[in-house]
Amino acid sequence: MNRPKDIMEFLFLLFLSNREFDEIRLILEKKYDIVVTEELKTEVEKMCTFSEGAFLAWQERGLEQGLEKGKVETLVNNISSLLESGLISDVQQAFSILHVKKDLQSKVLQHLQLH
Question: What pTM did the predictor assign?
């Protein structure tokens, strides 16, 4: 591993690839001349498990952010429609009618100011 690219590929293999352990072991042995002993096998399995856990955590975080963004966009559209229709006179009324939680109110206000 003389080049930074080699090191990045190696780290990707250990931490980010979705390969099974046996496939990783073969690559380590053939491409990197690393003999996977029982002790090393345990360490590699830990790394693979860590990377899978990290991937799932980031995936879940992304889904949560996407859901929140969708909620904010929906609220912005609904509040804009209520204001345009003349059924309400201000955003605070809309928050009350739509039961908008406090943590989302500032985000909705930011989006409304951009429109």
Answer: 0.47
